[in-house]
Amino acid sequence: MEDHIELYTDGAASGNPGPGGFGLVLKFKNHRKEISGGFKRTTNNRMELLAVIVGLESVTHNALHVRVYSDSKYVVDSINLKWVFGWRKTGFKNKANVDLWQRFLRIYDSNKHTFVWVKGHASNVENNRCDELAVAASKKPSLPIDEGYEAIKS
Hints:
Blueprint: E1 4-13, E2 18-28, E3 31-42, H1 44-58, E4 65-70, H2 73-80, H3 83-89, H4 98-107, E5 113-117, H5 125-138, H6 147-153
Parallel strand pairs: 1-4, 4-5
Antiparallel strand pairs: 1-2, 2-3
Helix pairs in contact: 1-4
């Protein structure tokens, strides 16, 4: 099998909307990187998608294939079933998280990015680690405002 980067992601929100966070693990050969972040008020779906975006934006070896593992049907199905491309054609009319989907589409490469759904809170060690990172990030003090979320709620 060709060399590829593994990207595990998860998002969390307490209250949905409420304090939220994302966590991700990037793995390539013997290298590993963990990233997390949180917001004062956001949604679970926004954090699931943001984890993928931040992970893909963090990849420095752009020639390598990235296999993304997520427990979010919202994210995985939107890409694998090509819903997001239909949404883009209609200007994302009546769709949530437009700011994040547009950001995602700027970095997405169907030739290099593969999405795999994994069962959440199950036996996937890396997905469980991402959940820990996301929950911990959502509980940090002085969380920033999710400007994208607040803009749609105004």
